[in-house]
Amino acid sequence: MVQQGGRPRARRRSRRWYRSPLMRRLLAVNLLALVILAASLLYLGGYKRELIETELRLVEAKGRTIAVALGHESMRLLAEGEPVLDTQSAEPLLRRLIEESGLSVRIRVRVFGPDGTLRLDSRRFSGFGDAVESEPLPPADETNMFHAALRWMLGLFDLAFRELETIEPYRERAEQKASDYREVEGALQGETGQVVRSLGARGLVLSVALPIRDFKRVLGAAMVSADGRPIDEAVSEMRLNILAAAAVALVASVLLTIYMARAIVRPLRDLSATAERVRPGYGRVDIQDLSGRNDEIGDLSAALRRMTHALWEGMEETEKFAADVSHELRTPLASTYSAAETAIRENDPAKRRKLMQIVLDDVKRLNRLIDSVADFSSLGVQFSRAETRPVDMGGMVAACIDAEQPPRPGLAVEAGDPLIVRGLEAQLARVVRNLIDNARSYSPAAGSVRLSLARERDEVVLRVDDDGPGFQAGKEETIFDRFYTDRPEAGGHGDRHSGLGLSISRDIARLHGGSVGASNRCDADGAVQGARFELRLPAAEA
Fold first, then answer.
1. Does position 126 have pLDDT exceeding 70, yes or no?
2. Of 228, 263, 288, which residue sits at a domain end?
3. Domain range spanning residue 318?
4. Where residue 68 sits, what CATH number does that domain have?
5. Across residues 19-23, what is the average pLDDT?
6. Cα gap 168→317, rounded to integer Å
7. Which helix (DSSP H) or strand (DSSP E) does residue 451 occupy?
8. Would the pTM of this model clear 0.70, i.e. be above it?
9. CA angle 520, 526, 532 (to 5 degrees)
């Protein structure tokens, strides 16, 4: 980052919403899904197959009518009594059947003899011309360039998928024979056949071949071919409708995506800008409260607000801690300075030794205070870097008691089955030692310190009881404040403690998800018998 006027500049400038990478990704995903859907719909393979099958059934029905009529009305007997197909009588019959069907511009009928030669072709009939090959002009409202280009693109689309379908191409020789068409060969064997062939850009040809029979004898084959361009036109019309719907969906998708992106990007940008201002030198800034959105952005806003509040509280706590440390250091420093200054002018060796002992005690106190401050400051960092493990509280407490120097009579622990918690054993042992040390410092010489360990529901509870004077009313929470001390002058321990032990113990317990509390132990008459500290930690499985 570039420094400007002592203040770091933001790494990147605020983006416009339409330049947002997030919005581009949303658009890309939504539009890609829409394009894929539209492309899959434009294929219309199943729809086209249904149209072809329907058309083939119609052509077969018409061809069956023609074949039956030719078999019954255009048959004559040879001298030998063999029935044959009379092409002279078949031609007017065939012409009449085609005209009556009203399909003269859509179908072509070819009649093949039993020897496979072409006997009749409706294309050669007078007045029928080349109807199958004609191409109607597009409607007047589609002659503009837009529709022409659209149909051209749809035509390319259709050709591409037609190539993928590997449809057999249609080829017609000048001298046609039954062997040119496999469906005709099958019809001469008494079987009905259907074949779909491609004319390339001119569409499809649908052919049905049926045997012409005289009872069970096959006299020839009738091949009825239909122009498949109406099918292509129906598919093209469907594609145009799909394209129109896709265009509307595309516009709606773009608008909705832009709306969604702005609804996401704008609050994120605002949160980013506000978070950028939450830095030293910018003053206290509150993160925008978007929790009312009831979505992930609202959750993010709430989390950022909690984080910044914790940050400000931490900064305030740091300032307060620094002030407390400064105050606590002044007392031993002032005492050291005064004792040293007096010792310089003191000629009595005994008094000088006493003054130097005061200096030595103050230096030791300063050393303990500095160590406690360092431990307190690094507590959170140590906990975040270390890995928690299962800790046997019974064994750990017993080890802490055994490590007491010198051993103190009256320390005891009561525990049943192994009680396991999860945490840092060294830190938990520190809490136990602090509680024991605090209890010992308040207990009289004839008193004792008693420890009990038990499981209560989902918690492991350690109680430390002493026979000291207890606490003043209302001081049960104050004793956990940093640098708080309220010890009797007797016992010689008043200058041994920094006032951070209980505060550190409570912080360690909280980092483990537990707590430390204090209360007075009273007898039946309400007289204070001593103090009780309770350490509560979440129980873990062994």
1. no
2. 228
3. 296-377
4. 3.30.450.20
5. 68
6. 85
7. strand 450-456
8. no
9. 15
